[in-house]
Q: What sequence folds into this?
């Protein structure tokens, strides 16, 4: 398992100048090192080749086409450098985007978040740290849609278990889930055990492996794996 | 699902709602009424008779004004003793009178005839537009206008054919009356009187009159048809000669109107994109940046301080505002539609719908903006309707693009009975579709299921540059 480097070196790609400056300030404030800021996907690829950062944070919608340039650059970078952590910021929920990203490499060290999440400063930074540490973070809204779509096999779960499942899928650890739901760690562990059993998923203590298993389950129409 | 009422297919066509399976409409003209089974008991024969009777003074006026030279010619020809030169002179005068006085005489007569036409033809009449310019200019235009000469032709027909037809009809009516009344005429006979003459024969006894009575009754039964036919024919000729000519102008205007409608829609579409882009690049960016700063400031303040409470509140309000602005922009022009097109945008709609929606939209190309937007709007509204009104538990969206025709079908498993008049926004949808030149069909029998289908013709065009 990878360990978090002392300082995470970030290349930031965002075409909006105001937001770019705002994010840079935010990263500085929380001890990340922003080594370069760029405004489009081509510049992002060049910058990564030049600076070899630990993590890339990029907007999906960027010049010149304003569609998914950022995402395509991120996927490409992941292919050439599987260890590069990548967080993409999306204007809207697009499952194909999340899927492309999760399927790039082994699904570790990637994050797919709605752009609006950046204003929930602590949660956003928490997500960045998890991705930098090799975790997988998927936006709660994506998860809630996946969970709703998979209503049939998930009906066996209690409401609380469904809540826990969503939080697992977002990439949270037991401790983080416990804090979020105001319950004890062992209680979370019990819920997690029940969920994995009910969904016929292999029990594991590894948070990352668990996240990927649950995500795969949600994306694959309920077929384990 | 058993249906208790017959299936009803409602067709929303260019915002006009047509319910298929309605009884045959009432005839609109006397001519069309002839094949109508209820003709004899309807008002049409009476209207026709009134029309024909009122024609007589009009025809008389036409004859008096334009027919004098011709009448003289006819009388002279009948009595004989007319030289070729005189006859030719009379013909010339007759033609000259029609050529010179025809147009001014025909105009008021044609006006009157158009007004009278309503008796035997209830369809709308497009009257010729009033001329522009000074009196002399108008007069000159009048002589040049082919419509004027068609009016003159009509008046000539009125002066020649109408009297003949009226005569024939009068004879038929008199014959019918005479035949039916023949037994009474025979009974009223006194010995020594001349026998009752009926047509070419004479009768002297009541028994002899029986076939005549039968023939008279038959003729009487036919009279309504005869009268309606003559009046209807007259009406058809009047419509052809007095009301046409504006259709070409109307067609030209219609083409111009549809073009300007297309231009308006395009302009509206461009404007919507501009507003969306402005809001997104301007207000939204600033707001996110501001909210981010408030979030940072919140962290730097001591948690229990009064400033932390105020900044925290401001942060929450800014977040709320962000959500509202996002909703607003989405309502103007969904970003996913702008960026990724109809297929992806429908996918997003389906994902966020409150019920499971199966999407089958193998759309691998971008369509013109207004069409994408109209189709998106239809699916959004239809899915909202399904969730709100249908009682259905799942829905399907099918999108096809084939031969330059976009077909979008939204179906559900609900209880049906969707009513375009029920304020479900269906009429608004149909209007929206009509603007793009498409049409909308709705099938929603009581008991379900409901299927809403939209067809939009679209020529493949590249995505407008941004």
A:
């Amino acid at each position: 398992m990878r360990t978090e480097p002392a300082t995470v070196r970030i290349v930031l790609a965002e075409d909006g100048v105001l937001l770019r400056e705002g994010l840079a300030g935010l990263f500085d404030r929380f001890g990340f090192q922003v080594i370069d800021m760029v405004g489009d996907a081509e510049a992002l690829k060049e910058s990564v080749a030049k600076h070899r950062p630990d993590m890339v944070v990029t907007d999906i919608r960027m010049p010149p086409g304003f569609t998914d340039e950022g995402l395509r650059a991120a996927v490409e970078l992941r292919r050439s450098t599987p260890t590069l952590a990548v967080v993409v910021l999306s204007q809207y929920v697009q499952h194909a985007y999340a899927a492309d990203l999760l399927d790039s490499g082994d699904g570790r060290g990637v994050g797919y978040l709605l752009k609006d999440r950046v204003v929930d400063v602590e949660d956003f930074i928490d997500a960045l740290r998890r991705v930098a540490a090799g975790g997988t973070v998927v936006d709660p809204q994506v998860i809630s849609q996946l969970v709703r779509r998979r209503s049939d096999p998930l009906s066996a779960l209690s409401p609380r278990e469904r809540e826990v499942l969503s939080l697992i899928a977002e990439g949270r650890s037991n401790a983080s889930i416990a804090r979020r739901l105001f319950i004890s760690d062992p209680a979370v562990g019990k819920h997690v055990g029940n969920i994995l059993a009910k969904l016929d998923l292999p029990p594991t203590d590894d948070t990352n492996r668990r996240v990927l298993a649950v995500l795969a389950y949600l994306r694959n129409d309920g077929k384990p794996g | 699902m058993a249906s208790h009422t017959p299936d009803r297919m409602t067709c929303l066509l260019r915002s006009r709602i047509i319910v298929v399976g309605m009884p045959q409409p009432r005839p609109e003209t006397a001519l069309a009424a002839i094949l109508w089974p209820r003709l004899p008991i309807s008002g049409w024969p009476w209207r026709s008779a009134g029309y024909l009777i009122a024609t007589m003074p009009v025809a008389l006026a036409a004859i008096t004004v334009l027919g004098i030279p011709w009448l003289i010619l006819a009388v002279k020809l009948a009595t004989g003793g007319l030289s070729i030169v005189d006859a030719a002179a009379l013909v010339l005068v007759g033609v000259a009178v029609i050529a010179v006085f025809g147009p001014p005489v025909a105009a008021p007569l044609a006006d009157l005839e158009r007004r009278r036409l309503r008796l035997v033809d209830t369809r709308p009449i497009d009257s010729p537009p009033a001329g522009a310019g000074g009196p002399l200019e108008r007069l000159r235009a009048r002589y040049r206008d082919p419509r004027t000469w068609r009016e003159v032709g009509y008046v000539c027909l009125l002066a020649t054919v109408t009297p003949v037809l009226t005569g024939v009809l009068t004879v038929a009516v008199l014959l019918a009356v005479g035949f039916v009344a023949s037994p009474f005429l025979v009974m009223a006979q006194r010995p020594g009187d001349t026998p009752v003459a009926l047509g070419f024969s004479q009768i002297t006894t009541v028994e002899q009159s029986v076939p005549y009575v039968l023939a008279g009754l038959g003729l009487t039964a036919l009279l309504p048809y005869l009268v309606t036919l003559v009046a209807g024919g007259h009406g058809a000729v009047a419509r052809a000669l007095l009301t046409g000519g504006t259709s070409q102008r109307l067609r030209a205007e219609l083409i111009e109107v549809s073009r300007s409608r297309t231009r308006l829609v395009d302009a509206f579409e461009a404007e919507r994109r501009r507003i969306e882009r402005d809001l997104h690049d301007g207000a939204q960016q600033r707001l996110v940046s501001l909210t981010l700063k408030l979030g940072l400031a919140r962290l730097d303040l001591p948690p229990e301080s009064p400033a932390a409470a105020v900044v925290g509140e401001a942060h929450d309000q800014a977040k709320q505002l962000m959500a509202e602005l996002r909703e607003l922009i989405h309502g103007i022009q969904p970003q996913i539609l702008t960026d990724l097109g109809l297929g992806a945008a429908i996918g997003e709609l389906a994902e966020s719908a409150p019920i499971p929606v199966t999407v089958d939209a193998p759309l691998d190309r971008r369509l013109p903006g207004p069409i994408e937007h109209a189709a998106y709007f239809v699916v959004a509204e239809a899915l909202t309707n399904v969730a709100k009104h249908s009682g259905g538990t799942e829905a399907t969206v099918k999108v096809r693009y084939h031969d330059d025709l976009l077909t979008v079908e939204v179906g559900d498993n609900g209880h049906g009975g969707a009513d375009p008049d029920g304020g479900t926004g269906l009429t608004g949808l149909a209007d929206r579709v009509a603007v793009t030149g498409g049409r909308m069909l709705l099938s929603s029998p009581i008991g379900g299921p409901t299927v809403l289908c939209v067809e939009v013709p679209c020529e493949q065009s590249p995505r407008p540059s941004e």
